[in-house]
C-alpha cells in the first residue's frame, strides 16, 4: 500500500492500540484523541473490518445504541448485535469466518452482565479468527445523569474475559469518561496517539500527484487551515496573499473570495471585527466578479459574505448595523433562491433590532421571516429556523408568558429524568440476573408515569397559550399550521413514547386559536389585522 500522510496517521492509531492491549489486565480502553481526529479513528475502526486493510488481529464491533435505561440498553445492545450478525452473513462467509453463532437467548439477562456474556460468546465462537473482540460503545444519545457510567461499572464488575475489551471514545477537548478511568484505574487506560490532522492535511496536499497551479493552491489552502487554527492573523494574511495572487492570475475569482473569507474569519477569531468586516467586503467583491463571469458557486459566496459581515457587526456590539446587513444577506439568499437562508437573514435582522430596542421594527422583520416559510413544504419548514422565528415573535410580545412556557418544559424534563433514574435504580437493584417479568413491570410503570407527565405539561402549556393576547395566540396558530398541530413554543415537548396521537393515553389538550391568516398577508401596516392590539406597526 502506498505510503501517505493519512496512512501514517492510521498506523499511529494501530501502534497505539497494540501497545495498549499488550497489557492483558486492561479491560476498559478509552480512545482519547483531538476532536479533529474523529474521522481518522472511524476510518481505523472500519479498516479492521475488512481483510484488505486489516492490520491488527482484533475485531472492532461499533455499537451506537442510545442509552436511556440500563436494562433497556442491555436488551437493545443484544438485539443490535444479533441483527448486525445476521446482516453480515455473506460478508463473513466471503472472509471464511465460520457461521453458526447462536446469538443472545433467554439465558442472557437484560443487564450489563448479560451483554458481557453475549460478547464473550461471540468472541469464543470466532476465536480462531481474532485475538480480541473490541466492543466500541458509542451511544448516539445518553439521557442526563450517570446511568451509562453505572452500566459500564456493572459490565466491568461482570469480569470481562481475556478476549473481550470494552472500548469508549472521548476527546482531548471533552474527556467525558475520565471518572470511569479514575474509578477503574487498575483495569482501565487511555489509548492515545500523536496524530495532527492539520499536519496530515498539509502533507497530503504537498504530496498530491501532478504539478501546476492547482497543486500549489491546494498546498496553500492546507497551510491556511493550519494557520487559522494555530497562527496569528498576520500569518494568515501573509499566506493568503500568496493564495490570492495565484487565484487572481488564474482567474479563479471564487477562490479569491474563499481565501478572503478565511482571512476575515482569522481577524474575527482574534477579536478585530473591523478588519474582519473589511475582509468580508473584499470577499464579496471577488464573489461578485465570479458571478459576473458566470461562476455557479458565486451567488452563495456573495450570500456567505453578507452573513459573515453581519456577524462581525454583532461582535462589534452594533446590532442596528448587523440588522441592516442581515437584511442584505436575506435579499442575497432570496435571489439564489435559498429560502432557508432568506428566512434566517430576516429572523436575525428582527432579533438584532430587538436587541437595539426597536420592538416594532423587529416585529416587522420577524413576521416577514415567518411569511417566507409559507410556500415551503412542512418538511422543509422544519429544516429552517422557523420555530425560532415564531418563538422570537412570542418573546417580543409577551416575555413573561414565554418564560412560563419554558419553565413548564424545564420542570417536565427534570421530572422525566427523575423517573428514568428511579427506574434505572430499580433495575440495578434486581442484580446481574434480573427476572424479565420484574423488568417488564418497571417498564410499564415508567411508561405510564412518563406519559402522564407529558399530558400534564401539555395541558399547562395550553393554558398559558390560551391566556395570551390575540397576537400571541395567532403566532402559536401559525406554528400549528406550519409545523405541528400541537406546537406550543420552545423548547418542544415530544411524546415520551413517540406514539401517534390516535393512541395517546389522553386526548390532545389543544384548543381553538384565532385565524392567523392576517399575519401572512404582507408587511404590517396600521389597521392591518396582523397589528397587535394597542400597537401601531412601524
Itemize the secondary structure elements and their pairings:
Layout: H1 5-21, E1 28-33, H2 38-47, E2 59-63, H3 70-87, H4 89-94, H5 112-125, E3 133-137, H6 147-157, E4 164-171, H7 178-183, E5 188-191, H8 197-206, H9 213-230, H10 233-250, H11 253-269, H12 273-292, H13 298-315, H14 319-335, H15 339-355, H16 359-372, H17 378-382, H18 386-397, H19 399-429, H20 436-466, H21 470-482
What does this protein structure show overall?
By secondary structure, this protein is mainly α. Helix content is 60%, strand content 5%. It has 21 helices and five strands. Strands 2-3-4-1-5 form a five-stranded parallel β-sheet, sandwiched between helices. Helix 15 runs antiparallel to helix 16. The relative contact order is 0.07.
Sum up the structure in keywords.
five-stranded parallel sheet, 538 residues, mainly alpha, 5 strands
Please outline what is shown here.
The chain is mainly alpha-helical and 538 residues long. The protein contains 21 helices and five strands.
Share in helix: 55-70%
Number of strands: 5
The proportion of strand residues reads 5-15%
Radius of gyration: 28 Å
SSE string? HEHEHHHEHEHEHHHHHHHHHHHHHH
Q: In DSSP terms, counting alpha (H) and pi (I) runs of 4 or more, how many helices? A: 21
The main sheet orders its strands as 2-3-4-1-5
| Low confidence ranges | 524-538
- Category from helices, strands and their pairing: mainly alpha
Q: What form results from the Cα inertia axes?
A: flat
For the report, how would you describe the main beta sheet?
5 strands, parallel
**Head-to-tail CA distance between termini:** 68 Å
Mean pLDDT: 92
Amino acid at each position: 500500500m502506498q505510503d501517505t500522510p493519512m496512512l501514517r496517521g492510521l498506523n499511529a492509531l494501530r501502534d497505539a492500540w497494540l501497545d495498549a492491549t499488550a497489557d492483558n489486565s486492561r479491560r476498559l480502553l478509552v480512545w482519547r484523541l483531538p476532536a479533529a481526529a474523529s474521522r481518522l479513528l472511524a476510518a481505523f475502526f472500519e479498516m479492521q473490518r475488512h481483510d484488505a486493510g486489516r492490520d491488527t488481529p482484533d475485531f472492532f464491533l461499533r455499537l451506537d445504541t442510545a442509552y436511556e435505561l440500563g436494562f433497556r440498553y442491555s436488551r437493545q445492545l443484544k438485539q443490535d448485535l444479533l441483527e448486525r450478525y445476521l446482516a453480515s452473513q455473506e460478508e463473513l462467509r466471503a472472509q471464511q469466518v465460520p457461521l453458526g453463532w447462536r446469538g443472545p437467548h433467554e439465558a442472557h439477562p437484560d443487564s450489563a452482565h448479560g451483554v458481557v456474556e453475549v460478547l464473550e460468546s461471540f468472541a469464543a465462537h470466532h476465536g480462531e479468527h481474532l485475538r480480541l473482540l473490541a466492543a466500541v460503545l458509542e451511544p448516539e444519545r445518553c439521557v442526563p445523569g450517570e446511568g451509562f457510567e453505572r452500566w459500564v461499572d456493572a459490565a466491568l464488575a461482570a469480569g470481562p474475559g481475556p478476549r473481550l475489551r470494552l472500548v469508549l471514545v472521548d476527546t482531548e477537548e471533552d474527556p467525558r469518561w475520565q471518572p470511569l478511568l479514575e474509578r477503574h484505574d487498575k483495569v482501565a487506560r487511555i489509548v492515545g496517539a500523536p496524530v495532527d490532522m492539520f499536519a496530515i492535511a498539509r502533507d497530503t496536499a504537498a504530496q498530491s500527484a501532478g504539478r501546476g497551479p492547482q497543486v500549489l493552491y491546494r498546498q496553500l489552502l492546507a497551510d491556511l487551515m493550519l494557520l487559522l487554527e494555530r497562527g496569528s492573523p498576520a500569518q494568515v494574511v501573509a499566506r493568503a496573499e500568496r493564495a490570492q495572487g495565484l487565484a487572481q492570475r488564474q482567474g479563479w475569482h471564487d477562490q479569491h473570495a474563499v481565501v478572503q473569507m478565511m482571512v476575515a474569519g482569522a481577524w474575527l477569531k482574534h477579536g478585530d471585527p473591523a478588519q474582519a468586516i473589511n475582509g468580508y467586503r473584499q470577499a464579496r467583491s471577488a464573489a461578485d466578479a465570479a458571478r459576473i463571469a458566470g461562476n455557479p458557486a458565486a451567488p452563495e459566496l456573495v450570500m456567505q459574505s453578507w452573513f459573515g459581515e453581519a456577524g462581525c457587526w454583532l461582535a462589534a456590539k452594533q446590532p442596528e448595523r448587523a440588522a441592516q446587513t442581515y437584511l442584505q444577506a436575506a435579499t442575497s439568499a432570496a435571489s439564489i433562491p435559498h429560502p432557508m437562508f432568506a428566512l434566517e437573514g430576516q429572523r436575525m435582522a428582527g432579533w438584532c433590532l430587538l436587541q437595539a430596542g426597536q420592538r416594532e421594527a423587529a416585529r416587522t422583520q420577524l413576521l416577514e421571516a415567518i411569511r417566507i416559510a409559507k410556500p415551503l413544504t412542512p418538511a422543509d419548514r422544519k429544516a429552517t429556523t422557523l420555530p425560532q422565528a415564531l418563538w422570537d415573535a412570542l418573546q417580543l410580545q409577551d416575555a413573561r408568558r414565554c418564560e412560563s412556557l419554558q419553565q413548564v418544559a424545564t420542570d417536565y424534563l427534570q421530572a422525566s429524568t427523575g423517573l428514568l433514574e428511579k427506574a434505572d435504580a430499580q433495575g440495578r437493584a434486581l442484580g446481574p440476573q434480573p427476572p424479565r417479568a420484574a423488568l417488564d413491570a418497571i417498564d410499564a410503570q415508567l411508561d405510564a408515569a412518563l406519559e402522564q407527565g407529558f399530558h400534564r405539561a401539555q395541558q399547562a402549556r395550553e393554558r398559558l397559550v390560551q391566556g395570551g393576547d390575540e397576537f400571541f395566540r395567532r403566532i402559536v396558530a401559525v406554528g400549528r399550521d406550519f409545523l405541528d398541530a400541537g406546537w406550543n413554543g420552545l423548547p418542544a415537548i415530544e411524546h415520551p413514547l413517540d406514539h401517534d396521537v390516535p393512541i395517546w393515553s389522553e386526548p390532545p389538550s389543544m384548543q381553538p386559536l384565532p385565524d392567523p391568516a392576517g399575519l401572512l398577508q404582507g408587511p404590517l401596516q396600521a389597521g392591518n389585522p396582523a397589528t397587535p392590539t394597542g400597537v401601531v406597526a412601524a
